[in-house]
Amino acid sequence: MSQIAIVEAFAELEDCRRQAGRRHQQSLCLALFTLSVAAGNRGFLAIGDWLKSYHDELVELFKPEKNRLPSYSTIRRTLLRISVKKYSDCLSRFFGIEPIESETIAVDGKVLRGSYEAISDNPDVDSHPAIMLVSAYIVERGLILEPYQVDSKTNEITALPEFIKNLALKGVVFAFDAISTQKKLLKSS
Known about the structure:
Layout: H1 5-9, H2 26-38, H3 44-53, H4 55-62, H5 72-81, H6 84-95, E1 104-111, E2 132-138, E3 143-144, E4 148-150, H7 156-167, E5 173-176, H8 183-188
Parallel strand pairs: 1-5
Antiparallel strand pairs: 1-2, 2-3, 2-4
Helix pairs in contact: 2-5, 3-5
């Protein structure tokens, strides 16, 4: 298989799939997933339809072994076994998403809709609070940095100092919404 930049972006990721029955390179599965989502496909069935629609073009472009592309279920199984953080890091490096000095970074916290699980009648499902993320957006270039998951026992306000510390940026301007300008938060920073 010839090396294309998007495939090379994922080449260093450790392949956590079991060796038996492995037919496709993990980096190819991740590249196809990334391209299909960038093309507007949401969900694995839509990804499967996209793979079928562009099969000949994708085979010609990627030149996979035996001229076979992975199925959407293979791509799904691959995604279930990789670290989201490592995948995100590979994408950030590939796209060159690093804030530049004097850029403005807008920071905001959001709760993922539908991510909570209320107490239910099903004993196999544990109840849990909604997932909250703090995200950063590079205003000048319209790019989103990797989101930071807030611990379930805290909130956006207390997570912001840790998030900013993890970014370890110098020379950038941070823009916050009103909730992040509380007096207690400003004194502790």
